[in-house]
Request: fold
Amino acid sequence: MFVQQDSGALEENLRRLERRLELPGPISRRRIAREFGWTVKATEEALKELARRRLLELAAQEALNVEELARRTARAFRGCFSQKQVKPLLTALLRQGLLAKLPRKQLHYRPDVPKPLIEALGLKLEATPPPPSPEDLPKRILAKVAELEEAPYVPVIVDRIRPQFADCGKEEFDRAVLRLAEEGRIYLVPVRVLQPEDREMLIYDGKGNYYASLGLRR
Amino acid sequence: MTERATTTPASGSAASGCLAEIPNPFARGVVRSAWEKDVVDVEAIHREAFSVLLGLVEERRRGVHGRSVLLHGFAGSGKTHLLRRLRLHVQSSADAFVPFIWVWMQTSPGMKWRHLRREFIDNLTREQIDGRNQLERLIELAAGEFEARLDRISDRNLQVVLEHLARKRFVRDATAWLRGDPLPDSVSERLGLGEVEFEDASAEDASRRLIHDLAMFLRPTAFVMCLDQLEQLQTHPADRNGLFAVGELFAALDRIENAIVIGCAQTEMQRELDGVLMQYARDRYRLLGLGELKPAEIEQLVRARLEAEPRIAACRPAGASEFWPIDLKRLRPAGEPHRLVTPRWVLYACAEQFEAAKGAMQPRPSLEEFLRSEYQSRLERARQELSPERSAVILSDGLPRLLHLGGFRIRREGLSSWLDHEVVSAENARIGVAILHETPQGRWRKLKRMVEEWRPEERSLVVLIDAFHPVGATAARTREFLDELERRGARRSTPSKEALAALDALRRLLGDVESGDLDFEGGTPELSKVEDWVRQNTPPALAELLDEITRVEPERRLLSVLADLLAEKKVLSVKDAAAALGTTPEEVERCARENRHHFGLLMGAEPVVFEKTPAGVGA
Reply:
């Protein structure tokens, strides 16, 4: 069986499979099995493993909702692994804690998951950058706000910026944002109406005030 | 907020005495309309944003169809002020004539096009430039190709009305028709008009088409259309219908090639629009943000206001700064680093310092005192302005606000066109509200549909009759329909004119808070605090109106819950039905007998009640 291969062979086989899927045109599982000389079961497991990695890579790059994440993942498989087949993998990753739910029904990769679990799953996440140092956070926030602002004094809504900082916790991010506001580097836009499901997404100052967007002061 | 201003070091008792008779030049902080006169303007403030707006006008005049603009900023950042500057600019420009329309969007989503139509025409006819209003100038501009332009219009009535206006015939009635005012049949005949739209949905559509047709007629003349305070389309901040209405307006107006559409909303609305509108709807406009005042702009603003009152300079002590009695160093919001420094906040802080320098500091009113006084002034204005033309929008926009404050949920989407709102109580009682404010013909058509389509087991029904449009003694068919509805359990109510005035005052107060136009201590009071105050101080006329609408008669309630129960169980013994509904078997029997078209009743040792279907057998 595919899973019984040693890790070197596994990686090599996955690389071959990835390269094959980069070729244009649809392809069936049966054809992959024939071309690679694998059993149907081994082919299925290889596809599953590749799909798991693809899911985590996408979730590490951008917070997406379930449908979008499944759709984008399946798109890379040229018809041999459907969106419907991706969904149980997604559920499993959520159960294992490798993916976390953000408000607004988005999912993101959780880099704070203990490494042994990732290693036990045989995963290697090249898309996930090394964890930045906490001192860099304010600078990164300022740079990201500058990048995402459509125009001066068009603030960036938190839903767009928070997923970019999935590597740090909510409290840490909120603290850094509030500090920048106190220093007069950014301004915050209070939320007009607080919906309970938005609490996790909004910036909270610990004094009962929630903020919905932020922009650079010029 | 801010600490109370103290007397500035430069002010002595002599200077205070000198200032005593001088009105505070900083007292006026809110520009409420782009048509306002006598406003001190500092051109350096928001210069970049103004250039963008001018660029938009230029582009459109050259025939380039760019995206519309959604101008946003914090309360008091100067959005309306900027639109006023744009109006002055386009009106004084020696280049081609660009008509200017400014609409305060306090209306309900269901009446937005009728509101826009009325305001569109009011704007075109209000301002005299060189002895002519904008509409007259536009008709003159079209003179050489009047017939050809009329051919662009599909609406025959609009063609007829424009011809009358071009020949200066029936000007008052023709203008009233353009605004959407109902005209007596005899006047319509005299104007030569055909049948008009009667029902709400078609009247909305007709208004949208009229704006579109009128714009086609004006081509190639480009016109500026400002939709100010878009947040007022929401009944309450979480109201998604209001947000959809914003998207719908931009989408529809964006198709008008010669319209320069500028919407205005508070920055706080941005995330809500982002969450509700699909990307294609958001693509119809681009965002233009208003920033905060820089120190140099603050100086210019203070200087301009001081210079507007020359007597201040005469009081200035020797050696005092040119900004005396204002201390510029203290013009920073203390303790609120997240806030941007807005013109309104600067003016408020200056007004406080000026009063302190005069030695005339009055105790600051509490929020409650402030709200009472603001409500009262709006009530007085509402009483004066109450008219048959305004009552429809008052009921349409004000009623959902009142019901929301009363703790009821309001549903509008997916309802039949004869039903204006569905009100859902905490106990899930459903009440339909139908407002009658159409023309007599429209009214009986609406009532006819109500009689045909209303199902009492789905929801109870309240028919509100506009006090300005009572049912006439000769409207026999309308009366018959109303009687029929009442016989089937609907209630009818005619809110008093006092209730209408109070409702108007309430919606104006809440609307001003939502749009940041209620200036309290340089900012806007929190909406939740204002809502709490209204709940605790609901005027009796409104409390009565709320009660009349939301009161569920016990027998109505029983009819509704019995219908629900039998929809599920189909057949039940009267005893079991009574037990399930917490009432007596006698009440269930009585209800079933009185509503034979809904329920069947089989008497015997164990009476049985059952749901009547079209094929069912009645008792």
About this structure: The radius of gyration of chain A is 21 Å.
